[in-house]
Design a protein that fits this description.
GO cellular component, one term: endomembrane system
Keywords: Coiled coil, Membrane, Metal-binding, Zinc, Zinc-finger
Number of helices: 32
Strand content: 15-25%
GO biological process, one term: intracellular protein transport
Protein name: Pep3/Vps18/deep orange domain-containing protein
Shape: elongated
Structural class: alpha+beta
Main location: membrane
């Protein structure tokens, strides 16, 4: 069978002609990393390095004469290390050559041993060292060896194992390692002409093979003879994936799973899986056996004559036959095949030529191979495009459909995108009436669509919704036909509940792609109210959900929906009337949990509706509870809330809560806020209507209507009236008026002329704290009351008046004595004097106070003694010339005060001159008259400049704020500045050296 269709999988091209370079004919060949090493019949190694396009000839004969042909050549995957065995009449010799050496070195420890196979440790080998390698000999022995480039010889050679049960030569070897914890596990396979041996163990190679001395060796034996038994590993990413053994009866092959822990019957851990066997009889060449073979990822390359037959490893079918163009007539044909594990290339060689066998995407048709074998998972893993995957799905779907496994078929059909259309697949299920399978197909198809297919997703989801509803209804009908006791089906079957839960899960997953209006119409048309509510909740249509729960009487569920974070708060207000009537306790609790998120003012209509309904006497009033929570805990200031709470308190028979509410004054604690938030007029009208008189008294008092409060309180309780009368503290007249009202009421209440009643009325005066006197309340008594009944109180009042008169007389005497003392002090002031020392200086100019002449006169109105200037002397001892004092005070005072002093001084001088002109002057030039205006001006000037000593009074303290240098003293300040003296500039000579 040809699994192709995309051209040849393999091609053969000549690579080298005369590859042996005149050193005889080619007897053996090895390849690795673009390096080919040939062994010749004359004992030469010819190394072709295609990376550097170079070739080297290496003589292994060492000048010996005679026949010494190269038996086998082995090259590591990196192309650096080479081992070759030479056969000559004296025996066999083994050589080692490194890529950097000019000539190979003989390995003396292997002299006489014919090496047929070498296994390289691909995981450990380096450019400088082979690490441990395994050698197999013709005598059935297995050796371990290592060669270091620097040593120029083998590092060691250890015997590992020898076949004793059936002595055959080791024809080929392969080795793989795997890390297990901190140790290394070795996997070794060896072949003889009839057997394949497997060895595995942890530790060193020596330990692994030594363990088989006391346990059975695991091997596979096949009948038949073959000239050259070969064992190959296919290497991918430096790991062996599968193997093939060219045996006498066929090719034994299998997958390699290193690290597998499956034990075989022999006790060894078997790392071979999916074993298979290819019989040569399928080649159709009358029993001709291959001389050599190579192993690719998916094929066997078998050398039969001059042809290379390519057999698919999976299907066991020959897919191609390659003919090697062997031009030399003297050639004996193709000798063998070899592979380069690092590059994935294959080579064929004859006595003088090398041919390269290249692969061209050999796995491109493997999906079809696996599909033909019904290995669907493997076929899918090898598909390269969606069309190939659709082919695999189609085969699986058709097979399941034919077997009436419709659910499985629907799943596979849903994965297809190109081979069959959506409509064709849907019709397949509709034609046979498989609605459930069709629903499965639609759901799986949704899983395979991308987000860009929005329209298709919406249409398929809507169709699936209708199929779900149809399925649910069919189950209900089936239940109703079985039910005999009830006409209505009871949806309690497990299948019904399962499909309903599945449908709800589908709605939840598809809520974003389903058209909201269409889906709701579908659910409503099928009568699925619960699912309609569920879908509305998914689409956040909470109004529908809440309305449904209210209709069902499930207030708790409705409140749970409303309390969700993403539910708009308007729904709370909209459904508040219905919910509070349905379950007042739960509704109010939910409102209280919301705290400040709700506006209580918008809930007033719902609360009013609840209040209008009759309730049991002992029932907790939920509206009052919520309003108290708003007022006390949330500090609500809405007048509507406070008015409603007050109205509810007013309707209660017990007035205590109402009075407490009025006394609390919830607005009192706020800055610049009112004492209460309710409407006092409304509250008064309501309390009067409900006959809550004590509350009315409190409200009158809050409104400062104290007369009305006392008048109403007198109708309710005398003590209440007294308390209200005492509340007025700022207005004594009003307070007295209120107490007179109370007194009049008391007197009128104690009617009659009995002495005890009159005495009781008079005792009331003591409660007013002497605010009322007996004369204030006498007009309220009847005219026929005898004066004897008031004798004691009148006497007491007269005594009080007498005491007050005596007190006033004493105060008057004290005032008279004080006036006399003041007059005496004023007379003494006119005679007051002080003694001035002759040496007394003026506090400002520092001249003698008693200086005769020389000083400017401040005005003729000042009285002078001889030719001395007028002056001021203060009780503290400081003395100042009048002119000096005026100048000092003017400078240190404010501008307005200085202008006033100067104005007084000017007006006083003008009046002095005018008086002198009109009346003449005395001998000493001073005025002989003193007019009242002059004295007044002089007194004002004295008060302005000499009210206190400028050095000991406030003026000195104020001078602290004055600047040290006044603005007018800038010249004086400049005179004190130190200016640097100008110095002549000196020029220093400069000398320059050249």
């Amino acid at each position: 069978m040809d699994a192709g269709g995309g051209g040849q999988l393999f091609s053969v091209d000549p690579l080298e002609r005369q590859a042996a370079r005149g050193h005889g004919v080619v007897t053996s060949m090895a390849a690795g990393s673009d390096v080919i090493v040939l062994g010749t019949s004359r004992g030469w190694l010819v190394r072709h390095d295609y990376t550097f396009e170079d070739a080297h000839d290496l003589d292994l004969g060492s000048g010996r004469s005679g026949d010494h042909s190269v038996h086998r050549v082995f090259l590591d995957p990196g192309g650096k290390h080479c081992v070759a065995t030479v056969v000559h009449p004296g025996g066999a010799e083994t050589y080692y050559h490194h890529a950097r050496w000019p000539r190979p070195k003989q390995l003396p420890r292997l002299r006489g041993l014919l090496v047929n196979a070498v296994a390289w440790n691909r995981q450990s080998i380096t450019e400088a060292s082979t690490k441990e390698i395994i050698l197999g000999t013709e005598s059935g022995q297995i050796f371990e060896m290592a060669v270091e480039e620097t040593d120029k010889r083998e590092k060691y050679v250890k015997p590992l194992f020898e076949l004793t049960e059936q002595r055959e030569g080791i024809k080929d070897l392969q080795m793989e390692t795997a890390v297990v914890g901190n140790s290394i596990r070795y996997y070794v396979m060896a072949v003889t002409p009839t057997r394949l041996y497997s060895f595995t163990g942890i530790g060193s190679l020596e330990t692994v093979f030594a363990s088989y001395s006391d346990r059975a060796i695991h091997f596979m034996e096949l009948p038949g003879e073959i000239p050259n038994s070969e064992l190959h590993f296919f290497i991918k990413q430096r790991r062996a994936k599968h193997f093939g053994w060219l045996s006498g009866s066929g090719i034994y092959h299998g997958e390699l799973n290193f690290g597998a822990q499956h034990s075989s019957t022999s006790g060894d851990e078997n790392f071979v899986e999916n074993k298979g066997f290819f019989d040569y009889s399928k080649l159709g060449d009358s029993g001709t056996k291959p001389r050599s073979f190579a192993l690719s990822e998916f094929h066997f390359l078998l050398l039969i004559g001059d042809k290379i037959k390519v057999v698919n490893r999976i299907s066991k079918q020959m897919v191609e036959e390659l003919v090697v163009d062997n031009t030399p007539e003297t050639s004996r044909g193709i000798i063998g095949l070899c592979s380069d594990a690092s590059t994935g290339l294959f080579y064929a060689y004859d006595e003088s030529s090398i041919f390269q066998i290249s692969t061209s995407d050999e796995g491109r048709d493997m999906w079809q191979v696996y599909l033909d074998m019904n290995h669907y998972a493997a076929a899918l893993s090898h598909c390269r495009n969606p069309f190939q995957r659709d082919q695999v799905y189609l085969v699986q779907a058709d097979a399941a459909f034919a077997a009436k496994e419709y659910y499985i078929a629907a799943s596979f059909y849903a994965k297809m995108n190109y081979v069959l259309s959506f409509e064709e697949i849907s019709l397949k299920f509709i034609s046979i009436g498989e609605q459930d399978a069709l629903r499965t197909f639609l759901l799986r198809r949704l899983d395979n669509l991308t987000k860009d297919d929005k329209m298709q997703i919406t249409m398929i989801s809507t169709w699936a919704t209708e199929l779900y509803l149809d399925k649910i209804n069919r189950l209900l009908l089936e239940d109703s036909t079985v039910t005999t006791t009830n006409s209505v089906a009871e949806p309690n079957s497990s299948e019904y509940r399962s499909i309903v839960n599945e449908f709800r899960a589908f709605l939840s997953d598809s809520k974003d792609v389903l058209d909201e209006a269409t889906t709701m119409r579908l659910l409503e048309s099928y009568g699925r109210v619960d699912e309609l509510v569920y879908f509305a909740g998914l689409k956040e249509q909470y109004e529908i959900v809440v309305h449904h729960y209210i209709q069902q009487g499930e207030a708790r569920k409705a409140l749970e929906v409303i309390q969700r974070r993403n539910v708009p708060v308007d729904l709370v207000y909209k459904f508040a009337p219905d919910l509070i009537m349905l379950d007042a306790y739960e509704t109010v609790e939910s409102w209280m949990m919301a705290r400040n998120k709700l506006n209580p003012g918008k809930l007033i209509p719902a609360m009013m509706r609840y209040v209008s309904e009759p309730h049991a006497k002992n029932e907790t009033h939920e509206v009052i509870k919520y309003l108290e929570f708003c007022v006390k805990d949330l500090n609500n200031e809405d007048p509507g809330v406070h008015n409603l709470l007050l109205s509810l308190y007013a309707k209660k028979e017990d007035e205590s809560q109402l009075l407490q509410f009025l006394d609390t004054k919830f607005g009192k604690g706020q800055t610049n806020g009112p004492e209460f938030f309710y409407d006092p007029k409304y509250a008064l009208r309501l309390c009067l209507q409900e006959k809550r008189m004590r509350a009315c008294v409190r409200i009158y008092s809050m409104m400062s209507m104290h007369e009305e409060a006392v008048a109403l309180a007198l109708k309710v309780d005398l003590e209440l009236a007294k308390a209200e009368a005492d509340k007025v503290e700022d207005d004594e007249e009003l307070r007295k008026k209120l107490w007179l009202k109370v007194a009049k009421h008391v007197i009128e209440q104690e009617k009659g002329v009995k002495r005890e009643n009159i005495k009781k009325a008079i005792e009331f005066l003591s409660e007013t704290n002497n605010l009322l006197k007996i004369e204030d309340i006498l007009p309220f008594f009847p005219d026929f009351v005898l004066i004897d009944d008031f004798k004691e109180e009148i006497c007491k009042s007269l005594k009080d008046y007498n005491s007050q008169i005596e007190l006033l007389k004493q105060e008057m005497d004290d005032a008279t004595r004080g006036a006399d003392n003041i007059r005496s002090d004023i007379g003494a002031l006119a005679q007051r004097y002080t003694v001035i020392d002759r040496e007394q200086d003026c506090g400002v100019c520092r001249r003698k106070i008693l200086t005769v002449g020389g000083l400017h006169q401040v005005g003729r109105s000042y009285t002078s003694v001889g030719h001395m200037a007028p002056f001021y002397v203060f009780p503290c001892g400081h003395a100042f010339h009048a002119n000096c004092l005026i100048g000092h005070v003017t400078r240190c005072s404010s501008q307005a005060q200085a202008e006033r002093i100067l104005d007084l001084q000017k007006r006083l001088s003008l009046m002095d001159r005018k008086a002198a002109k009109d009346n003449g002057t005395s001998v000493n030039g001073e005025s002989v008259m003193s007019t009242t205006p002059v004295d007044k001006l002089r007194s004002q000037l004295d008060d302005a400049v000499a009210s206190e000593c400028p050095f000991c009074g406030d003026l000195m303290i104020k001078e602290i704020s004055q600047p040290f240098i006044l603005p007018g003293e800038s010249d004086e300040k400049a005179s004190w500045e130190i200016k640097p003296q100008p110095t002549p500039q000196k020029i220093l000579p400069m000398t320059m050296s050249i």
